[in-house]
Design a protein that fits this description.
This protein is α+β, with helices and mostly antiparallel strands and 490 residues long. It has 3 domains: 171 residues, 2-Layer Sandwich (Beta-Lactamase), CATH 3.30.450; 86 residues, Signal transduction histidine kinase, dimerisation/phosphotransfer (DHp) domain (Helix Hairpins, Orthogonal Bundle); 156 residues, 2-Layer Sandwich (Heat Shock Protein 90). The chain is built from 12 helices and 12 strands. The strands form 3 sheets. The chain has a 5-stranded antiparallel sheet, sandwiched between helices. It has a 5-stranded mixed sheet with strand order 7-9-10-12-11. Strand 9 and strand 10 form a beta hairpin. Helix 1 runs antiparallel to helix 6, helix 6 runs parallel beside helix 7 and helix 7 packs antiparallel against helix 8. The protein is rod-shaped and about 175 Å long.
Length: 490
Amino acid sequence: MVLKKRYKRSYRWRLFWSMLVMMWIVVGVMMAFQYRREVDYRTEFIKEQLSLVNSRILDAYEHDVDLKPFMNFLRHYFCDSMFEDVMVSVYDRDGRLEYSIGRRMLSDFDEAKEQGEFQQAVEQGEGTEMRADGESMFFFSALRSHDGQVYVHTAVPFTVNIADALHVTDFTFWFVMVLLMIGTACMAYFSTNFLMKNIKMLREFAESAKNDNLQFDESKFPHNELGDISREIVKLYHERIEALRKSEREHDIALHAVEEKARLKRQLTNNINHELKTPVGVIRGYLDTVLTAEDMDSDTRRYFLTRAQDNVVRLCSLLNDVSTMTRLEEGSGNIPKAEIDFHDLVYMVENDMKAAGEMKNMSFEFKLPFDCLVKGNSTLLVSVISNLIRNAVLHSRGTAMGLELMAESQRYYTFAFWDNGVGVAEEHIPHLFERFYRVDAGRSRKMGGTGLGLPIVKNTIEAMGGTITVRNRPEGGLSFLFTLEKWRGK
């Protein structure tokens, strides 16, 4: 942790020093440029002063003013100034020296013509040059008159006064330089503070995220590009966390579904094994008895074979119900559906079951409108009504049952199948649609039920897009409320 903090602090200071160095380089370049301009300006000023001396002399010549008094005036004028050592030579067209102030810098006119300032004066009328003469530096200036009859040559040595005049790094220069450097340092410091504020907040967010504390105020980020990027990072983080949570929830749900499916499969397998053992054991027992008891009378043998046959029928019913449940679970989305007149279908089931004696001592009535068209599978709907009737006959202990239309919506019919029996205790209601669930196991097996009738009813209704619930009736018995989709054409 100490190393990380040290690294983050060093990053801030590296940013500060990088910015400061760049600013100082810019300031240095600007000051060097200004210094060079100032030096050039002052140098040009000295050259202009020398050129002015030359111009005044030529003006005096062109106005026929006696140059000797004028030259004496110049000597006194430049006394105690930086030009007090000025040297002036005036030549005529033939190279004769007419007047001079100070020592002669050139031995004769021929030598003068070889100098750069004289060559410029001959070609352009005026020329200047700075060069060494011996061990000292001099400023030279040459000027030609308009008629070409007179040449003025001026020189001034690079004295201490001249050097001071050219020296621009005085107190003011350094003061401005220091102020600029301090100002840029302050600017770099506050700029890095501003930039690091955003990074500091990102670090705080990272610490909060590491500690699973997502109560972070994103509005604190500044409203600039860095702030927008930071908010986007926080947003992406929240989206990722939410996606992970959603993925975990879905994984838990899927895992629970897989475990539940495996549990139900194990339960179904165990229940099927248990349910199969009883009829198989009974059949085997009766057959073994018949086969081993050679002296058994015909009535007893008939009774044993009849009982074995009943258990074979029960075994076949159980296997058929298991097969139906498997088909419903594996192919619920592929069930063919068509237009069915539910009134006619219930009427047909009633007649068939009465003819087969399956109603026993219970009456059945139904109140359905004619042309009650539903969308479904006729074979499965027959199984639904038949299983509800058989369940009432076997377990209700009532005398009457019925089916009626309770309500309808734009899309669905709601039906109620009821009986007037004893009903069941409330703690059994949530489990009635579970496979092989029996309120009274001993009595149910004695009556011949497989324990899959109501689960088949529920799976069939749901496979056709409906719902089903069960409740006790206030007046006694059970009421099954289920919905079927209306037929609305293709």
